[in-house]
Amino acid sequence: MAHTEPKAIDSTPSGPPEWLAPALDVAAMDVRGFLAEGVDPFAAIMEAAAGIEFGGFLVIDAPFNPSPLRRVLAGRGFSSYGRKLSEGHWRVFFHLDGGADWESGADVKVSPEGAMTWREDDGIHIDVRKLAPPNPMLAIIRLIETLTGNETVVVHHEREPHFLAPELAERGWRIARIANEVVNVRLWLERDA
Amino acid sequence: MFPGSFMMGAKDRLLPPSVPYRFFVAAVVFHLAAWSVLAWAGADAGLGFVGGQGPVLAALHLITLGTLATTAMGAAIQLLPVATRRPLGPVWACKAMFVAYVPGVAVFAAGLASGTLVFQHLGAGLCSIGLGTFGWLVARNLRKVDDLPGVTRHAWLAVASLLLLVGLGFALVIDFTRGILADHGGIAAAHAVLAAYGFMGMLALGFSYVLIPMFILGSAVPDAVGRRTALLSAIGLALGAGGAAFGLGPLAALGALAGLAATFVYLRGMRDTLKSRMKKRLEPFFRMVWVAWALLPLSLLAALAPALGAPLDPWGTLWGFLLVFGWLLSFVTAILQRIMPFLASMHSSALGGKPALLSHLSPKLPVDIHLACHGAALVLIIAAILGGWVWPMRLGVLAGLAGAVSFGVYTIEVLRRYLSHMAAAAAAHHEG
């Protein structure tokens, strides 16, 4: 299987966590089929997670980086590490170790609002799903205000953010396009030409 | 998909812009009408007003029903479905609500000003239809929402207050001719508590938890804060309205104290949001929010005096003025000032192209004048009520009228700039 290592958003990426080696042998639960059929796999994943004993692993295959799931499972003591294997295929490893240091070995940064950001080939991704309003807007504005170049920002949202456009326009940004998928509304934000 | 279709894809939650704007424009017209009626009535009518039919009661209802409730309706039908992620209801119901309610307010105010019973009854009936439709739309939207306790608990309290205040309002109108109430003043005070702190106040607190952090880009208010203010408000409303209705002053005073506790928790939550905000320089609308936040606790302190037996003139008059013109009118005009250009900007990319900038849609001079006039009106009229002076009252009413004219100019200018942007976008779309 061709592995595409995710790039860290800062210039000093930390490597995979030490617990990853034994996790590689665990069979993955592939939820892409659920999502393709329009079914939210959250309940099935939670059921699987409930059966994991301390020190154990859970591996999920998803069509995108399932950041809200990672946050939820972190709250239940799981550390996580995600890899983008190919376009539309992420593998996320969960390790039930208390989750105290859950993002230290991962490939993402977490904003003060709890949004995850990471870099892919098509731009900087930010996942604001499951955040309480107005935190999604805050996290997005905070991110674009730190950017100086012409990078595209890809937002993973759970709904169309109606109130975002005026704030983006005020900062010289716009929503270039939008795609609706199950539990993942994606918006591509670009600077005005 | 392009920006134009981004807006199109939100049909379930975004209303056509003409729907909320008709409420906002009506609210601005009623604001102007209220100050005009007060100016026409003369200073003597306002001094020592503690109830009774006439132009002052008409002006009071032009503000409460006309400006405050109409703004709340226009804002809620647009914001509530977006905040709760649930559809509101059919657009025709919103339009029907407007058709019944807005003429109802005008007819009711005319009836109160002239003492014409048929206008009072017809106006009250039409207003009740409008308010009932609003209550139904809000309740329908909130029924399955369990993840926004800060907003929904206050909105439920507003709906409950609405039901009670409409019932008491009808009793008061009928009492003018039939004399069915043993204590008209007490029921009027309970009606005022439920209308101002209950219906409008709860909507103001609930929407604050969404709008203020969004407008200043501050952190979300924790759910626990919203739960506490809702609980304290519910206790305060029950004690305050119950104490007023049954002539139990100490009970009403306890209600005011519970209201003060709710206000303290609410303002502390807002302070934390302000501390975390990304917009270091607050926009002009926030000056009116400061005024409103200062006068909310003052209105509750003023409520203690008549509740504990102080004479209604001037203490009851002062309480009513601080509550309606101080806290609520300042807060609602602040929100109107911000939300009109905000919604215009949101809708301005419907034909594709760039959205109109908020900063370009909001002229500053008219709101500066409105702020100065509104502030002067508050200071002068409070002084007039406390001192029993005619001249400060006259000057205060004229300042209020000048402020209302200026706010009207602001509204016209926001709409003119929006329509101008849309005309240019339509031309570009046609050529492209």
TrEMBL record, chain A:
InterPro entries: DUF2249 (IPR018720), TusA-like_sf (IPR036868)
Name recorded for this polypeptide: DUF2249 domain-containing protein
Domain DUF2249: 29-95, 126-186
Organism ancestry: Bacteria, Pseudomonadati, Pseudomonadota, Alphaproteobacteria, Rhodospirillales
Pfam family, one: DUF2249
Tree of life domain: Bacteria
Organism from which the protein derives: Paramagnetospirillum kuznetsovii
Signal peptide (residue range): none
TrEMBL record, chain B:
Organism superkingdom: Bacteria
Residues passing through the membrane, by range: 21-43, 55-80, 92-112, 118-139, 151-174, 194-217, 229-246, 252-269, 290-312, 318-336, 371-391, 397-415
Keywords from the UniProt entry: Membrane, Transmembrane, Transmembrane helix
Protein name as catalogued: Uncharacterized protein
